[in-house]
Amino acid sequence: MTGLDWFIVGLYVVIALVLGVVFSRKASRTTADFFVAGRSLPWWIAGTSLVATTFSTDTPLFVAGLARSEGIHGNWFWWAAAIGQTATIFFFAKLWRRTKVLTDVEFIQCRYDASPQRSLLRVFKVYFDGVFVNCVVMASVTIAATKVVQAVMGLGDDPVFSLIISQDAAPLFTITETGAVLLVLGFCAMVYSMASGLYGVVYTDLVQFGLAMVGTIWLAVVSFSKVTEGGGFAEQIQASAAYNPDKNILGFFPDMSSFDLIVFTFLTYIFVVSWQTAPGSGYLVQRILATKSEKDSLLAFLWYNFCHYVLRPWPWIVVGLASMVLLPELAEPGADAESAFPMMIDLMLGPGIKGVIVAAMLAAYMSTLDTHLNWGASYLVNDLYQPFIRPQAKPREQILVSRMTMVLLTIMALEVSTRLTGIIDAYKLLGVFVGGVGTVLILRWYWWRVTAWSEVVAIVGALALGSGCEYWLANPLDELKEPLLDASGRPIDYFAYRMVITTFGTAFIWVVVTLLTSHKPSTKAVVFCRDIRPPGPGWRFVRRREGIAAESGEFGRSAIGWLASIGLIYSMLLGIGSAIFSRWTGVLICLVIAIISAFVLKWVLSRSLFGDVPKNTEA
What is the C-alpha to C-alpha distance for residues 147 and 342, in angstroms, rounded to an integer? Predict the structure, then answer.
């Protein structure tokens, strides 16, 4: 890192702080301004902000690490989520916007009748989603930022900081140089988030996204050019000492000729993990709620999906694959594959451009922190402090408490970061626990019989089954059988088994409880049906009973739009990959599918209803 590189990094930090000052007055007017930017964001700002937030420092690290350790097909761990997130575009985005809530947790208030279980559910979600999940995600990006800083600054791999409470003679708190850098960045993110609310978050995200795309594409181009100096890209990878022919490293899909753990895991990603993301949650919903119209909410999520799954993945994957040739030492047992991306930054880039990508990576760290701080504070204030502790609290007091909770969340996230062993491990841990409630989160929108008890039972079931699976299936099922090993010599875990058991076991439990306890529409369910106008057969009984108008044909159009979006996203994703590896037949097939899907999608969007008063009533 030269002086020029550090100047670029520092310039971004200054810009972020200035934006915090610029929007501080606007964000301090109401909680709606602070948490959802006054519901004023156009689609391209909301969507780009989502892309920047999900970029985060950990994403390129674990994607590049997956590519070199498990192969390109290992990325179906997150590529599969496009199936669910394209469903969000058509089945949930408009409905979320119609609720006019400030957080996705507040949805409970407008969907279920007042009861002890509704209050219990709301408080639990505040702590589980707003504190536990939030801190785990912030901790994972802190781990990633640590690896970036250590690689580009040539620092040791000591922990960021340590807290000692049992040795009287030792200092209570020690911090490394890496820790000092991250604390400064974290402090800056906290300051402008506290000052400007979501306004500052989304506009700093725009700067971060621009830096990130320029830096990562340049790194991928330089890495690709370096590897291909001696021949074709695929040929050079296959000739490298790090290449394992049994891994099908360059395959877009796993070898389906035999049904093994890898194939079962892939199918689990496609048919189980994928739809867990469909209803949206957390900061994804926050951006939907911050848009200025129903149409903007749909377009924002469509733009996010395009950028997230089409524009960004291949630069990271190319860098990960190139590292197999240029950093063969990372193939040694015990080596950290997730360090490949920052090590490639240090190896391949010169002054100036290195500063751009390091600034982008550190900006991604700040971008993720600021989003999660604002989102977590919104839960603690809007769904705990205001309804249960200080119902009479005025907006100024609520915003003050929000800023105080951001400080607390920052401290907790740094503590959690010292306890996580890896980035992908953190996401798989959350996937097992959160995955079990995916079915109830979808059907609460489309089935009138779902109640607060349904969600409570689903959460309890998911935690119980998930904990049991984590304990019993963390190791190979058959201890007498030699376990499959990854590129680092570690046993492949049985995430797929844990996911399937937790998901379907939880679904069975909550559906049975729902059928036994819910026999007639509640008052809130009727109001919800009338105000939010969810389409589909799950509300037909309520619509007929109450004489509520239905949006004719909207559910069918949504299904067609969803399938067209899936076709468009995956054809462009795999088409770009085919071009990188000169697989021209694949490029042609993907191009045809993309063109057809784009025309169908255009047709659906031109006929979708946005905020219209329904004109047709079901018989």
Answer: 7
Q: What was the pLDDT predicted at 616?
A: 41
The DSSP secondary-structure symbol of 393 reads -
Q: Hey, how many other C-beta atoms are within 10 angstroms of the C-beta on 427?
A: 17
Bridge partner residues of 174 (DSSP): 162
**pLDDT score of 619 more than 80:** no
| pLDDT tens-place string over residues 449-496 | 999 999 999 999 988 888 887 777 654 444 434 554 544 455 556 778
CA 396 centroid distance within chain: 31
**What's this model's pTM, rounded to 2 decimal places?**
0.83
For residue 41, the SS3 value is strand
What is the Cα–Cα distance from 31 to 28, expressed in whole angstroms? 8
Could you write out the three-class secondary structure of 466-514? HHHHHHHCCCCCCCCCCCCECCCCCECCCHHHHHHHHHHHHHHHHHHHH
Distance CA 386, CA 394 (A): 9
Which residues are registered as beta bridge partners of 491? 485
Between 353-380 and 116-127, two packed helices, what is the crossing angle to 10 degrees? 160
Sequence ranges of the domains in the chain? 549-619
Provide the token pair at 211.
């830096």
Phi/psi for 577 (5° steps) reads -60, -40
**44 and 216 Cβ atoms separated by less than 8 Å:** no
Structure tokens at 229: 């100096």
Instruction: List the alpha helices (DSSP H) in 381-451.
Output: 395-417, 423-435, 438-446
